[in-house]
Amino acid sequence: MPSLKITVIGTGYLGATHAAAMAELGFEVLGLDIAEEKIDLLRAGRAPMYEPGLEDLLRRHVAGIEGSTGRLRFTTSYPEAAEFGDVHFICVTTPQKAGEYACDMSYVDAAVASLAPHLSRPALVVGKSTVPVGSAARLGQVIAGLAPAGPDVELAWNPEFLREGFAVQDTLRPDRIVAGVTSERAESLLREVYATPIAEGSPFLATDLPTAELVKTAANAFLSTKISFINAMAEICEAADGDVVRLAEALGYDDRIGHKFLRAGIGFGGGCLPKDIRAFMARAGELGVDQALTFLREVDSINMRRRAHMIELTREALGGSVLGRRIAILGATFKPDSDDVRDSPALNVAGQLHLQGAQVTVYDPKGTENARAVFPTLRYADTALAAAVGADAVLHLTEWREFGELDPAALGEVVTERRILDGRNTLDPAVWRKAGWTYRAMGRPTA
Ligand code: UDX
């Protein structure tokens, strides 16, 4: 049984999953959040967001739940967390600043400022949030100035690469563990945290602080670039009558390129990739090397063009205007297996069509509640079939598995016009066309 005690500060996608995973690995864990309602949910073994497998893990470990190991508890108290933990993981959000590209560090800064004055015994503070390079060194100084235990409290940076929808799996079986450290003691503590049977086998890379911070932003910049690359190819395919899906398939067989992240469509969204590439550009500017990342401006604008193009295709399909036309939208979240609608291309397209006068009805298997909070004026249906009733066009915008299993014939019975636009290129054109639908995709031939 591991002897280190762990606190996890922030219980969003990252923190809630990390806390539960650490308990699964055998640690005594205390999760902290300043939002009482999240703590209440977690104490009851409920996840504050939809994430496959997370509630099972919570129920297995949250103290007070019948049959649980009791290894996982939650609090809103910083003094309690400081007293409890040997290793404190900072997992709070780093959103985009309103009206700018830069990262809003206020949540990380507040977490450190709230924790550090209570650290009166040796401890390691480990940042996991995605931050602009240089933040860790700055926060290390802040901690040194505030912690009563002085040099016995150190800072390390250990970025997290989890994907929503796969958060539990990615946390328990990470592709790699990156540990930005400034001392052997910090490195050996982090090695101890990850020296568990489950995380064994993942490469462990000890680096300096800036490199650790950069691994995360560079990874997200690379992934975004890959998606925008294939979406640029989709623009070319559309102009030249090529098929971007076949192109991507053929490209992917080259091991140096690979098949992953080559799905063309309405582009990337979510709480990470869009804001991370913008924050990266802003930070490069501050460092005086903005030219190194000007290509990311292009990556961002190719991505945003995809949403505009989907709207253009819809308008075209409906004879030049969407005014008064009924449009069924399948999907509101930024990706399947998540209820997250942050910077969701699907919801953005739905909202823009609504603002252009279309009668939009949205169906999403898990994201309706969050979508309604952002866009209360849209109509929401409880099933794909209900959304499609009377529709002049159906838009497939998030590739939930259930949309791939829809029966085109049954859907065809309820719509006004059998017209479908596939914004994710995951439906089978042959199946839909055979059932009498006009199928249009992004970057693929029209028939
Ligand atoms: C991403 C990174 O993958 C993860 O490593 C990091 O820790 C956080 O950011 P996430 O935001 O959960 O994870 O989603 P991801 O699976 O990367 O997808 C991001 C967006 O790209 C989604 O909107 C998705 O639909 C889109 N996407 C992905 C494409 O449009 N095409 C693809 O080929 C892949």
TrEMBL record:
Keywords on record: NAD, Oxidoreductase
Alphabetized InterPro entries for the sequence: 6-PGluconate_DH-like_C_sf (IPR008927), NAD(P)-bd_dom_sf (IPR036291), UDP-Glc/GDP-Man (IPR017476), UDP-Glc/GDP-Man_DH_C (IPR014027), UDP-Glc/GDP-Man_DH_C_sf (IPR036220), UDP-Glc/GDP-Man_DH_dimer (IPR014026), UDP-Glc/GDP-Man_DH_N (IPR001732), UDPglc_DH_bac (IPR028357)
GO process terms (BP): polysaccharide biosynthetic process; UDP-glucuronate biosynthetic process
Catalytic activity from the UniProt record: UDP-alpha-D-glucose + 2 NAD(+) + H2O = UDP-alpha-D-glucuronate + 2 NADH + 3 H(+)
Enzyme Commission identifier(s): 1.1.1.22
KW Oxidoreductase (keyword) present: yes
Domain UDP-glucose/GDP-mannose dehydrogenase C-terminal: 328-429
Positions of the catalytic residues: 272 (nucleophile)
Official protein name in the record: UDP-glucose 6-dehydrogenase
Stored NCBIfam families: NDP-sugDHase
SUPFAM superfamilies for this protein: 6-phosphogluconate dehydrogenase C-terminal domain-like (SSF48179), NAD(P)-binding Rossmann-fold domains (SSF51735), UDP-glucose/GDP-mannose dehydrogenase C-terminal domain (SSF52413)
Binding positions for NAD(+) per the UniProt entry: 33, 38, 94, 130, 164, 275, 342
Biochemical pathway: Nucleotide-sugar biosynthesis; UDP-alpha-D-glucuronate biosynthesis; UDP-alpha-D-glucuronate from UDP-alpha-D-glucose: step 1/1
Binding site for substrate: 161-164, 216, 261-265, 269, 335
